[in-house]
TrEMBL record:
Keywords: Oxidoreductase. Residues 4-122 form the Gfo/Idh/MocA-like oxidoreductase N-terminal domain. The keyword Oxidoreductase applies. PANTHER family: BCDNA.GH03377. Gene3D superfamilies: NAD(P)-binding Rossmann-like Domain. This is Gfo/Idh/MocA family oxidoreductase. GO terms for molecular function: nucleotide binding; oxidoreductase activity.
Length: 156
């Protein structure tokens, strides 16, 4: 299987979590990362053993070696970053939500189709065994009519 070059935008909690997961796949090269602060980007890149880093995600998008971009930033930044990445002919994996407004999300879906690029939002617990069991219980009516759900989980 060929190696895929990935760029990570955002180096807070979730960016390094994406890097950890991607490295477990085996055929992924984390080619670069970007953060709004160049000094933070440099420190994170050194700590995570990533050769290239940028203080502006638009500079990362100019790197022609990068095929896929993971957007791991605050929610209000997702739409513009995903749009810029798609316009730069990059595949996009975005933290949820894809956009704040439905019109923006639909625009991104249309742009991805036009560009023939993947534009995905991952749902990290959807296929966890516990979630599948809950879904089955709801479908079978085992827990009655649901009015509200509140949940949390610990992540290390």
């Amino acid at each position: 299987m060929r190696e895929i070059n990935v760029g990570i935008i955002g180096t807070g909690f979730i960016g390094p979590a994406h890097i950890e997961a991607l490295r477990r796949l085996g055929n992924i090269n984390i080619a670069a990362l970007a953060d709004i602060d160049i000094d933070t980007a440099k420190v994170k890149a050194e700590n995570l053993n990533i050769k290239k880093y940028y203080g502006d995600y638009k500079e990362l998008l100019k790197d022609d070696s990068i095929e896929v971009v993971h957007i791991c930033t605050p929610n209000h930044l997702h739409y513009q970053m995903a749009k810029d990445a798609l316009e730069a002919d990059r595949h996009v994996i975005c933290e949820k939500p894809l956009a704040i407004k439905i019109e923006e999300a639909l625009e991104l879906v249309e742009l991805a189709e036009k560009k023939k690029k993947i534009n995905a939002v991952h749902f990290n617990v959807r296929y966890y065994p516990l979630m599948r069991q809950v879904k089955m219980m709801v479908q079978k009516g085992d827990i009655g009519r649901i009015f509200s759900i509140h949940g949390s989980y610990l992540q290390d």
